[in-house]
Design brief:
about 230 residues, alpha/beta, 5 helices, about 25% strand
Length: about 230
C-alpha cells in the first residue's frame, strides 16, 4: 500500500501528479481515505460510512461517521491523480473511462457491500455515472502511440467493486465541490503478475500513461489533440 507525489516538469510549469498503487480492502476505508488524500487541507463535511449486507432490504445503521474539518481550499491539491489497481487473471492493461455510483453488491473483506447504500445520491445528488476531466479518446491515442508493443486497452467497465468505488469516490470529491471543476483523475488496471519482467513492463506502461496525461492536459489547455 502506498502513494507517490510526483512533480513533472512541463515547459515552464511543474505538474503535480499523485499516483496511488493500492486499493483499500474495505468500502469504509475508501470513503474515509479519499477526501483526506485529494483535499488534505479542505473540509469535506460529515461523511458517514454505511456498510451493508446482502441479506436485508434496508440499510444497516450508520457506523463510525467520518468528519474532516479545516479551511476549504479553492484549488485541488494535485493537477493529475492516477489510481492503479490489480486485475488478477488479466494479461493486459486497461484505462478505465468511467465510474458508477451504484451496483457495488460484492462484499469486501469485512463481508459488507453497498447494495442499499444511497449516501452519494441523498447527500450530494451525485450522478449515477461520472467521467474524468480528460478527453479519454485523446488520452488513449497518446498512450497507445508510445506503447505499440504492449497490450493496453480502453475500458468502460471498471468492475463494480473496490477499484471502481475508489475511482467514483475520487471523481465525486471534485464534482461535489463544483460540477464544472475539472476532474483530473484516471484509473489504470494492471495484470496480476509479479515477475521482474512484469514489474518492468508495468512501470513502462504507467510512466507512459502519466506522460500521456500530462500531454493531454496541456492539449486541453491549448486546444490541441493527439493526431
Amino acid at each position: 500500500m502506498g502513494s507517490r507525489d510526483i512533480p513533472v516538469e512541463s515547459g515552464n510549469d511543474d505538474i503535480d501528479v499523485l499516483v496511488t498503487g493500492f486499493v483499500p480492502v474495505h468500502y469504509e476505508a475508501v470513503r474515509e481515505l479519499v477526501p483526506k488524500l485529494l483535499f488534505p487541507d479542505g473540509s469535506t463535511g460529515n461523511i458517514p460510512i454505511v456498510p451493508q449486507n446482502n441479506t436485508s432490504t434496508s440499510p444497516l445503521p450508520r457506523r463510525n461517521p467520518t468528519t474532516i474539518t479545516g479551511k476549504p481550499i479553492d484549488k485541488p491539491r494535485y493537477d493529475i491523480v492516477l489510481h492503479i489497481g490489480m486485475a488478477p487473471g488479466r494479461k493486459y492493461f486497461t484505462l478505465e473511462k468511467r465510474a458508477h455510483r451504484n451496483g457495488y453488491n460484492a462484499k469486501d473483506e469485512d463481508g459488507d457491500s453497498l447494495e442499499y447504500d444511497t449516501w452519494f445520491r441523498d447527500e450530494f445528488n451525485a450522478p449515477e455515472l461520472l467521467t474524468p476531466g480528460f478527453d479519454t479518446d485523446d488520452l488513449w491515442r497518446r498512450w497507445k502511440s508510445e506503447l505499440l508493443q504492449e497490450d493496453v486497452r480502453p475500458s468502460n467497465d471498471a468492475g463494480r467493486f473496490l477499484c471502481e468505488f475508489l475511482y467514483y469516490t475520487s471523481l465525486v470529491e471534485y464534482w461535489r465541490r463544483d460540477p464544472s471543476l475539472r476532474r483530473p483523475v484516471m484509473f489504470l488496471h494492471v495484470p496480476g503478475r509479479i515477475e521482474d519482467i512484469d514489474i518492468a513492463t508495468g512501470r513502462k506502461v504507467t510512466m507512459g500513461l502519466i506522460g500521456a496525461m500530462v500531454e493531454s492536459l496541456k492539449g486541453a489547455d491549448t486546444g490541441g489533440v493527439a493526431p
